[in-house]
C-alpha cells in the first residue's frame, strides 16, 4: 500500500498517519519529523532545514527530494509506505513520480484531511502552549497556512485528475477521524 497524506498544518496528518500506517503495516514517513530529528541532532541537514522551518517556508526541493529518495530505498518500504507531508510542491510530485516509476510502483491513494481554518489554528496554538514547537508561533502558523494554500493545495487537483484523491473530514475527535479513514482506505 502506497499512501500520501495531504492537508494543511494542524489537520491531523501526523496523528492519523501514525495510526493508519500501523494498521497497514507500512512505515509512517513524515518529512517534518525527519527534519526535526536532524535539527535536534545538529546534523548538516538539520542546520540547513531549520531556518526555513522556523520561518514557515518550505525546505528547498533539492534537499527534501534527496532525503525522501534515500528514505524510500530502505528495506522497510518494500511493502509500501505512508508519506506524511510529501510531496508539497510541483517539483516534489514530479520527483515522487520518477522514484515510483523507476521502482515499477504506483500510488494507491492520496488522502486529503479537510479541516476548517479556525480549527487548525486552534490546534496549533494549543500545541504551542503544550510542546513549544518552534514553528507554532502565531506569525509562523499564518505563514505556513499561506505557503500550503499557494504551493500545496493546487496539487490536490493534480491527484484528483489522476483519480487518486480521497477527501476525509478531519473535524471532530481523533477516533472519529480514524474511523472515517479506515472506511475509505482499504485494509487487506
Ligand atoms: P510538518 O511537520 O509536516 O508540519 P505541518 O504540515 O505544518 O503540519 P503539522 O505537523 O503541524 O500538523 P499535522 O497535520 O501533522 O497535524 P498533527 O497530527 O500534528 O512540516 C514542518 C516544516 O517542515 C514545514 O513548514 C517545512 O518547513 C518543512 N517541511 C516538511 N515537509 C516538507 C516538504 N515536503 N517540502 C519542504 N519542506 C517541508 O496535529 C496537530 C495538533 O492537533 C497536535 O497537537 C495534535 O495532537 C492535535 N490534533 C490532531 N488531531 C486532532 C483532533 N481530531 N482533534 C483535536 N486535536 C487534534
Ligand atoms: Mg505533522
Walk me through what this model shows:
- The chain has a 5-stranded parallel β-sheet with strand order 2-3-1-4-5, sandwiched between helices.
- The longest helix has 24 residues, at 138-161.
- The chain has a single domain (2-30, 79-184), classed as Rossmann fold (3-Layer(aba) Sandwich), CATH 3.40.50.
- Helix 1 (13-24) packs across helix 8 (174-184) and helix 4 (61-72) packs parallel to helix 5 (90-103).
- The protein contains 8 helices and 5 strands; from the N terminus they run E-H-E-H-H-H-E-H-E-H-H-E-H.
- With 188 residues, it is an alpha/beta fold.
- Bound molecules: BIS(adenosine)-5'-pentaphosphate and magnesium ion (MG).
- The site of BIS(adenosine)-5'-pentaphosphate has 30 residues, from helix 1, helix 2, helix 3, helix 6 and helix 8.
- BIS(adenosine)-5'-pentaphosphate (AP5) binds next to helix 1, helix 2, helix 3, helix 6 and helix 8.
Amino acid at each position: 500500500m502506497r499512501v500520501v497524506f495531504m492537508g494543511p498544518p494542524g489537520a491531523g496528518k501526523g496523528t492519523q498517519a501514525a495510526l493508519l500506517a500501523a494498521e497497514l503495516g507500512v512505515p509512517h514517513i513524515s518529512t517534518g519529523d525527519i527534519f526535526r530529528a536532524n535539527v535536534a541532532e545538529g546534523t548538516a541537514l538539520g542546520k540547513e532545514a531549520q531556518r526555513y522551518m522556523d520561518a514557515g517556508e518550505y525546505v528547498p526541493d533539492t534537499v527534501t527530494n534527496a532525503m525522501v529518495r534515500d528514505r524510500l530505498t530502505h528495506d522497510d518500504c518494500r511493502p509500501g509506505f505512508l508519506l506524511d507531508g510529501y510531496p508539497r510542491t510541483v517539483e516534489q510530485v514530479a520527483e515522487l513520480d520518477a522514484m515510483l516509476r523507476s521502482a515499477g510502483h504506483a500510488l494507491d491513494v492520496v488522502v486529503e484531511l479537510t479541516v476548517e481554518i479556525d480549527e487548525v489554528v486552534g490546534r496549533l496554538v494549543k500545541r504551542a502552549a503544550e510542546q513549544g514547537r518552534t514553528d507554532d508561533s502565531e506569525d509562523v502558523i499564518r505563514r505556513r497556512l499561506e505557503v500550503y494554500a499557494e504551493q500545496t493545495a493546487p496539487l490536490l487537483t493534480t491527484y484528483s485528475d489522476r483519480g487518486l484523491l480521497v477527501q476525509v473530514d478531519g473535524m471532530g475527535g481523533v477516533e472519529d477521524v480514524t474511523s472515517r479513514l479506515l472506511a475509505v482506505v482499504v485494509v487487506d
